[in-house]
Give the backbone structure.
Amino acid sequence: CRRELRVAFDGEPGVDEGGVKKEFFELVAPPLFDPGLGMFVATQTDDRTIYFNPRCDWYLDKFDRIGTLCGLAFAHGIPLAACRLPTVAFKKLLAWRKRTREPEAPLRELLEDLDDVDEALARGLRQLLAFEPKESVEAAYQRAFMYGDPPTPLCPDGESLMVTHHNRRAFARQVAVRVLHTSVQDQFSRFATGFWRTAAKS
């Protein structure tokens, strides 16, 4: 069984029947999820949703604490308006709880998840997959298996492997997986550990 969270503000006597607890989370959570802090960034789809910042390596230990806070709110049925993560983040959380490796999603599903984080990138990858004539993909795109800022290889020898109609699906998959998963693995794993430490007790 879980312990009931009780909150009391200094100088404000009273019994916490839910309202004080809700106010506590409403005060604490927004600054933590503010992109200005640098732990999360606004998605490239819209500025109302946020995702883990793959560049944030200065607050790694705090992702665990934020996850713990979110787990507590979840365990007590308190919605966090500030936690504006996209659907793919919650899918990752569910997979993490099962302690199973995230299944290799179909490319179509990966691109749908990518829509929530970077709609323009997902659209560009779909255009690559649909490009005709297919024999002209390499000449038209002149793109190696590189991605990021600065670009880094998506696979061994990626800097010398050009995108063609034969491997364009593999390229699209590797870009989506990097953006959604591998680039934020350190940040997400800490967040998920903290989240389920408290949420799983509900």
